[in-house]
Amino acid sequence: MSGVWVFDKNGVARLVTNPTRESFEQKEPPFPGTATAPGARPRLLVYLPENQVIRSYTELEQRLNQLGWSRYHNYQHPSLIQFHKSDNSSHLLSLPKSFANFKSFHFYDIVVKNRSFFEVREA
């Protein structure tokens, strides 16, 4: 474990690997759910045909519907929103119920399953 141990005002320590100035100054990511580590640059999901940054489920669901995805109601996992491509496909997107809880791997999952329509960019 290499890095720097940082203590917050409550005396709780956390290990910061690969420290940067921003990792010490920044407590919360500027865009909720987009930074994966302290000091990491936030990531944005971009719909390529219109160069549109996706900032809400409304925008995401609209774009996914245009690409043939539909919402899959799975009552066994109420904390997730799921989309499936079609009844004949095994493609399934499982995303957190709150858009603010999106992480980079959720963005990349969308990109991998829709390669020519979405891209992840640094903010």
TrEMBL record:
Q: Name one GO biological process term.
A: regulation of flower development
* PANTHER family in the cross-refs: FLOWERING-PROMOTING FACTOR 1-LIKE PROTEIN 1
Family indicated by similarity: Belongs to the FPF1 family.
The protein's name in its UniProt record: Flowering-promoting factor 1-like protein 1
Question: What species does this protein belong to?
Answer: Vitis rotundifolia
